[in-house]
Specification:
Mean pLDDT: 86
Helix content: 40-55%
Number of strands: 7
Distance between the termini: 111 Å
Low-confidence stretches: none
Number of helices: 3
Strand order of the largest sheet: 4-3-5-6-7
Largest sheet: 5 strands, antiparallel
Strand content: 25-35%
Length: 193
């Protein structure tokens, strides 16, 4: 009879064993949620970094396009176009520490008089304005609600006479509690003679 008494005591879980099992299960679920949250955060950071890299490269591309338009389509000469390009950069205050920005929102690409020349370069002052995102077109510019991105263009003119322009396109953004930036650079030369 005594043997049955001890056998019945061993069957099933005690309250302590149940609490231990529940706490282990809960810790496992919390660890899983933590890993999922970190994965989502990393995915969002990667997406934002890709967008920032495209916007930084776009800054370089616009300045390169502007150079090509001035040099190729100047009625006088390619050297006069190069000089006009450098004057536009200097007048836009792109060579100072605060840099400049351009607004290409209102460009008319159907204009046969080379719309790239019509881009206005504006000094940033204390800081450049944030880029806006137009969800209907999927484009970044300065029309619509502000995005988390700010683009600053800086240039350094090299040589006397100037035969090289170093262009720096910096993208700044805030994500979570961190501030991030990426810098793209390229040297543009007067390649027409």
């Amino acid at each position: 009879m005594m043997h049955q008494f001890f056998k019945n005591k061993r069957d099933g879980f005690t309250l302590v064993e149940t609490l231990v099992a529940i706490s282990i299960f809960t810790m496992s679920i919390l660890a899983l949620f933590s890993v999922l949250a970190k994965g989502i955060s990393n995915t969002n950071y990667a997406k934002t970094k890709i967008i920032a890299s495209y916007l930084g490269q776009e800054g370089i591309e616009y300045i390169r396009n502007m150079r090509d338009t001035f040099v190729l389509y100047n009625p006088s000469s390619s050297q006069a176009g190069w000089n006009d390009f450098n004057t536009k950069l200097a007048n836009g205050s792109c060579q100072v520490a605060n840099g400049c920005y351009f607004n290409a929102d209102n460009l008319d690409y159907g204009d046969t008089t080379q719309p790239m020349i019509d881009i206005t370069l504006t000094a940033c002052g204390a800081s450049c304005p944030p880029l806006s995102f137009d969800s209907s077109t999927g484009k970044y510019g300065y029309t619509g609600p502000d995005s988390d991105f700010v683009r600053k263009i800086q240039i350094t003119q090299v040589g006397s006479p100037v035969n090289e322009v170093k262009v720096f396109s910096t993208i700044y953004w805030t994500q979570g509690s961190g501030n991030y930036s990426m810098v793209f650079s390229e040297s543009l030369f007067n390649w027409m003679e």
